[in-house]
Every structure is written in structure tokens, then in C-alpha cells.
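Lecture 7 notes: from sequence to structure.

We start with a single chain of 223 residues. Read the sequence below before looking at the structure.
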Amino acid sequence: MTDSTHTEARPSPRTGARAMMSRNRARGAAVLVALVTTGAGLIAMPSAQAADTRPSDAELLSKCDNGTKFCVFHPSGSMEKVAGPTRKVGDEDYNCTSLTQRSSIGWSDTTEESNSLGLSMTVGLGWEGVFSTSITTSYEHTWRRATTESSTTSVDVRPGQVGWVTRTPDMQKVKGTYELIFKDRFHGKRYWYVPFEATGPLGTSSMAQRTRPMTDEEKANHC
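Now the structure, written as C-alpha cells:
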């Protein structure tokens, strides 16, 4: 009788070590990918949150001298003189006669300031007061929030025509930046800057006399 013996082949120590190293490298690569992916998410999130939590310029100005350690308006450049919007003032005058008539048209018109943020500027200690003080100091000029002009203007109206008066107010424009430093962090920061532009009346204006032929409807209603 023949006795046969079966011997099982076993991997050599060197082959087993190489297999283990391959598995370790695979696991390490997977962990690295996970860390990179997670890290990218963590890096991106603060930027999105910072953009979402930025306060509006109006909200920042509402904190001027009301929670700030320092608040000042820095004008940039010189004060600029510009023309305001032209509009009709007073009543129209209709000439239904056959002769040219000189009409005296009385009028009164108020011009108010405006700004780039659409905020109402009133006398106070907040950002409005800071703005006025800065204008006086920087330009030796008083900022006017509103002016009213009243007068009478003569217009020569020919037969069959209607006459009226237009007024174009002279305005002053200032550009600059508000600097706000908070005692404590406000929306994550202590330093904030707000660009600002304002236009206010100078108290003077230019007038113009206008005429045109009456329409048939105007002739029927006024003559």
C-alpha cells in the first residue's frame, strides 16, 4: 500500500508582508480622501456664513454713536456743485386775448437732500450729526437738508398760448466713507466701512419762462 501525503502551499513571509502593505496603503488613501473632502467643506462654510451675516449699510449707520466706540465720516475730494432736477413751479397762465400778455406767476418750492442709501436725514446725534460735523470741519460749510424759495416770475405769453415757470435748484454733492469701530464685535468684526454719497440744496436756483400753443381742450376749458 502506498501512503501519499498532501502538503498545503503557504505564502512566504515576504509575500504576506507585501499584501499587508498594499491593504494599508489602500486604507490610508481612503482616509486621506475623506479628510480632504471634509476639510474642503469646513473651509468653504465660513466664507458663506460671513457673506450671509454681513449687516446692511443702513443697519451699520444706525449703530453710529449707538454702540460704536468710534464713528466718523471721511469726505473724499472737494464738494461738487451740481444742478438739481428741473420742475414746473406755480400755476400755468392761459392767454385767451388777441394781444401778448405779461403774466406774473407766483411760486414756492422746497428742495430736500437725498443720499445714496435712501435714508432720511434729520437733526440728531447719530450718523446725521456725524455727517454735518464732518462737512463743517472739512469744508467750513454748513450742510442744508432742505430749503424753500418763494418768488414771483414774469412770463410774456402770446395770444393763444399758455405760459409757466420752471425752477432748477443748485445742489451740493459730497462723497466719502463712514468708519465705524465697535466696542465689541458686531457681526464678527469690530471695524466696518460704509461708502456714502449725499446731495443737498444750496439755497439758490435758476428760473426759466416757458410757453407753448394751447390745445383745443385747453382753449375750451380756459377761454
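The beta strands are 68-75, 80-83, 87-94, 101-112, 114-115, 146-157, 161-186, 189-213. Keep this in mind for problem set 3.
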